[in-house]
Structure prediction request, 253 residues.
Amino acid sequence: MRGAWFRRFGTADAGARRLFCFPHAGGAASAYLRLSQALPPAVEVLSAQYPGRQDRRLEPGVEDIGVLADLLAEQVRRESGGRPYAFFGHSMGAVVAYETARRLRRKAGSGPFHLFVSGRSAPSTGPRRSDQLLGDAQLRAEIRRLGGTGSRVLDDPELMEMIMPALRADYRALAGYAWEPGQPLDCPLTVLVGDADPVVTVEEAAAWEGLSTASTAVRVFTGGHFYLDDRTQDVAEAIVSRLGAGARGESAA
Prediction:
């Protein structure tokens, strides 16, 4: 893959805690721009830019979650520079973050010190019907059903034409994904979900607890699948709270 994999927004403090963010299906690195602006300079956001979108639109999309996680794990190792880091993934990005963390633990013996998973049921609960979409008409209908700022592109044919290749690739990846049991993670998990999410219930989201030997916290926000659009500041505060004193720019002593 040719292009750079992560985008940085804003200026972070020296020694800031790094938060690698993974976008939803059809999403780009810019999906985390508002979150990065809501977080303090003590948290440095590195948002993944999957192939096939925005400045990587001429590259073919990756149609396999495992392959994408393999590629991202290697890039995270390069970007981390040996410093501690956390992961945040929304929707498809939650699965990508989880599988990337698994690979880092298995191959490198280390991984994120915290994993935030948002808007997604635990992979161990089995395949999601909403992942098994056929054809562009079903993809468009799903975008409309999920709502959020992404649904606005439905009214712009030129924008839709630009994002459809990435959306097709991402949903093919989701349709082909099957969770494989293995050694659980050992980092704490924070599970975030909207109380009116049409594709994942709070109970399904809470099942992430079984995928790590460390503690799991569940945070429920008012909103649907893209609750993050309206509750960005609340989510930022939840992230800072879970990352600890270092994320607030305070001494851990």
The chain has one domain: 6-248. The CA atoms of residues 28 and 168 lie 14 Å apart. The chain has a mean pLDDT of 90.
